[in-house]
Each structure stands twice: as structure tokens, then as C-alpha cells.
């Protein structure tokens, strides 16, 4: 049993790789290092540097390593920036997924776990998002993830392909002191970078219809997320039926204000966040049910908010 992890040198991908390795499953990484870091992987991790747009490279990797499945994490993940770079986003996320599926079919690789996103829902009008909540993506990124799901489902009708897609929201924390979130757009890195630079973190709006006036979101620990990928791969490898999609949600959510208070407590840096205007399109609350994933993928929230902040802060400080 050997699985390719596309995007496996990234923040999430490297955690997935280590989760596979912890279960004794060989993980072969394909990554172009556009945002990933080779240092996030152990020296003995099989590594192929290249793009998922290179079908020949993918086929060679599948054949050389006797690959039986793929966890597809590679893609352009910046929703806001995707509005300015729609063609690039579609090339990386849609053309890349189609190229990957073609290479898998050619090499006889018949299992895939796809990294999808809560961005497929857009701004939902329900308190608790389920897999059946209408999909209304509001960015090229969200659209490309939904199209990726469609591509995989359609390919499964045309060729032998066991598959599932995992939709998740805000991934935080660290499962290892040498891996940290490198995104310039995510909340935790933005807050930590501000504190390390002596600046005051900022909240975009505090007048929402929520308990403390700040937006409520699903925040899940990256190590919990990685475990769900491994279980999904193992179930597919065993020939067990899985649903086409699962939400990896917390069921209750955390407000931005709560996160700021937890950061101040964990870091020991007292601050009162600056309050800026609302960002256009930011809903007051987006929280998902993880019941189906709990049923089939052993999904659960194993980390508290304090543990999410503590692990992320320790990893970020170690990188300074």
C-alpha cells in the first residue's frame, strides 16, 4: 500500500504525510514547492518535485512507487486572490485535477481522497451546514473545488475509481514543532506575525449578530484533519463504501473574538485587537456538522481551542 500525496510538502499536506507514515503506510509526495517546503518532510520521504499539470511525471511516480491511491491536496488555495487570478486558479485546480485523473486511469490507480473546501457553500443561510446544504461558491477558488468534486464523480462513472471528497473550513494548529502555517492570508499567521512585529492584530467587524459581535467560524486542528484523510484512504483501500463527500466540521464553532482572547492568554502578550470595518461578503456564522464524518471516518475534535493556539504558536516561534 503506497499513496501519493499531491501538495504533500505544504502545511496541511505534510501533516497528512506524517499521519500516513505513523500508520506504516508509504506516502510519496508530489509537490512543485510553489508554497510547500521540502523541510516539512523527513529526508527519507519519497519526493517528486513537479506539477500536477505534468501527466507524464505523475504516471512515472505512480509506476515507480507502486501507488495504489492518491490524496489530492495540491491546488491554488487563496479564495480572495482567486478573484484577481481566475484563469490561474482554474488551471491549477481544474486542469490539474483532470490531468491527475487521466494519469491515474493510465497507471491503473483507482482510489482518490480529494481535498475540497467549505468555499463550495459560499454564504450559507443555515445555522449548521450539512453535506446537503446548497452549493453556491462565491469565488473562482470555491467554484474550482466544486468542479473538482464533479470531475472525480464523473470519472468514477466512466472508469474504476473509489473516491471521497473532504470539505473543511479553517485549519489551524500544528501537529509537529517544525511545521507551521505559511499562508499570508489565514487568521492565525496574520495574528502571530502582527504580535511578533509589535503590531496589534485586527478584527474585521464586531457588530455581527453573534454572542460577542465577531464572526463565528469552524476551526479544526490540522492533526485531526490529517487523521481523517488516513482513515478515508484505509477504507477505500479495504473496498469499503464511503459517501461522495464529508464535512469535517466542529458542530459549534468559535468566534474571532474568542480566538483573540485565547491568543493573548497563550502568548502572554496582552492586547486589545483593533476593530476595523466589516469585510464585504463575510457572513456572521459558518459552522458545519461533522456527524457523517464521525460515523464513517472516525472524525472528532481531539483538540481544544487553547491546544490549537498553543501548538500553532510554538511552531511559529520555532521558525523565527
From TrEMBL:
GO MF annotations in UniProt: UDP-glucose 4-epimerase activity
Biological pathway: Carbohydrate metabolism; galactose metabolism
Record InterPro entries: Epimerase_deHydtase, NAD(P)-bd_dom_sf, UDP_G4E
Biological process terms in GO annotation: galactose catabolic process via UDP-galactose, Leloir pathway
Keywords: Carbohydrate metabolism, Isomerase, NAD
Gene3D superfamilies hit by this protein: NAD(P)-binding Rossmann-like Domain (3.40.50.720), UDP-galactose 4-epimerase, domain 1 (3.90.25.10)
Keyword Isomerase annotated: yes
EC number: 5.1.3.2
Domain NAD-dependent epimerase/dehydratase: 4-249
Catalyzed reaction equations: UDP-alpha-D-glucose = UDP-alpha-D-galactose
Cofactor: NAD(+)
Record Pfam families: Epimerase
Assigned protein family: Belongs to the NAD(P)-dependent epimerase/dehydratase family.
UniProt-recorded name of the protein: UDP-glucose 4-epimerase
Amino acid at each position: 500500500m503506497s499513496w501519493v500525496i499531491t501538495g504533500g510538502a505544504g502545511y496541511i499536506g505534510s501533516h497528512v504525510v506524517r499521519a500516513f507514515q505513523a500508520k506504516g503506510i508509504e506516502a510519496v509526495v508530489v509537490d512543485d514547492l510553489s508554497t510547500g517546503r521540502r523541510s516539512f518532510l523527513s529526508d527519507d520521504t519519497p519526493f517528486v518535485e513537479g506539477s500536477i499539470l505534468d501527466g507524464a511525471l505523475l504516471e512515472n511516480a505512480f509506476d515507480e512507487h507502486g501507488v495504489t491511491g492518491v490524496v489530492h491536496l495540491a491546488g491554488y488555495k487563496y479564495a480572495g486572490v482567486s478573484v484577481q487570478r481566475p484563469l490561474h486558479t482554474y488551471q491549477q485546480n481544474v486542469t490539474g485535477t483532470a490531468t491527475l485523473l487521466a494519469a491515474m486511469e493510465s497507471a491503473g490507480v483507482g482510489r482518490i481522497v480529494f481535498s475540497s473546501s467549505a468555499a463550495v457553500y459560499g454564504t450559507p443561510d443555515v445555522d449548521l451546514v450539512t453535506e446537503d446544504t446548497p452549493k453556491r461558491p462565491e469565488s473562482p477558488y470555491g467554484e474550482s473545488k466544486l468542479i473538482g468534486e464533479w470531475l472525480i464523480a464523473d470519472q468514477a462513472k466512466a472508469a474504476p475509481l473509489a473516491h471521497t471528497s473532504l470539505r473543511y473550513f479553517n485549519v489551524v494548529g500544528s501537529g509537529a514543532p517544525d511545521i507551521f502555517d505559511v499562508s499570508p492570508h489565514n487568521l492565525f499567521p496574520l495574528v502571530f506575525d502582527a504580535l511578533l512585529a509589535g503590531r496589534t492584530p485586527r478584527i474585521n467587524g464586531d457588530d455581527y449578530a453573534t454572542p460577542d459581535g465577531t464572526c463565528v467560524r469552524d476551526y479544526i486542528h490540522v492533526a485531526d484533519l490529517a487523521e481523517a484523510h488516513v482513515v478515508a484512504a484505509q477504507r477505500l483501500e479495504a473496498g469499503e463504501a464511503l459517501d461522495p463527500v464529508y464535512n469535517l466540521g466542529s458542530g459549534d464553532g468559535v468566534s474571532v473574538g474568542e480566538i483573540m482572547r485565547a491568543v493573548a492568554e497563550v502568548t502572554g502578550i496582552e492586547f486589545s485587537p483593533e476593530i476595523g470595518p466589516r469585510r464585504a461578503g463575510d457572513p456572521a456564522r459558518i459552522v458545519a456538522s461533522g456527524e457523517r464524518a464521525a460515523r464513517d471516518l472516525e472524525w472528532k475534535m481531539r483538540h481544544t481551542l487553547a491546544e490549537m493556539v498553543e501548538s500553532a504558536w510554538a511552531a511559529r516561534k520555532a521558525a523565527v
